[in-house]
Design goal:
Layout: E1 6-7, E2 11-20, E3 28-35, E4 43-49, E5 64-70, E6 80-87, E7 95-104
Antiparallel strand pairs: 1-6, 2-5, 2-7, 3-4, 3-6
């Protein structure tokens, strides 16, 4: 799973949350990657990778991994960040990643919502 990149110049911090469901007995890796452009080449961000979850029939079920990133932690010239989750085989299981931009540099934060957001309550 690779997720839509988040433009970090609009946020001071971002939090990525990997939510796991009933996973197969496979290893699970989750990390953050950075790029200078949205569609560019992404590289791993040092220190922003979770410890690999070992393959197990039930130990990884319904678990969460949270990785926080502050804008100054990006390498020079990098503006975009995305989360990348990988399972050790092709079975995987239900999972999702939530990316939360925090401390917007420009207000209101709703100025940059996706077109399919139908409601924002503040």
């Amino acid at each position: 799973m690779v997720f839509f990149p988040l433009h970090l110049q609009k946020w001071e911090e971002v939090m990525f949350i990997l939510l796991l469901g009933d996973m197969a007995a496979e290893t699970i890796d989750f990390k953050l990657q950075e790029s200078a452009t949205s569609g560019g080449t992404y590289t791993d961000i040092s220190g922003k990778a979770a410890t690999q979850l070992a393959a197990h029939a039930s130990n990884n079920d319904n678990k969460q991994i949270v990785i926080n990133l502050k804008a100054p932690e990006l390498s020079a010239g990098m503006r975009y960040v995305k989360g990348r989750a990988i399972t050790g085989n092709s079975t995987g299981g239900p999972a999702c990643v939530i990316a939360l931009g925090m401390k917007p540099r420009f207000a209101p934060g709703s100025d940059d919502d996706l077109a399919d957001v139908v409601q924002i309550i503040t």
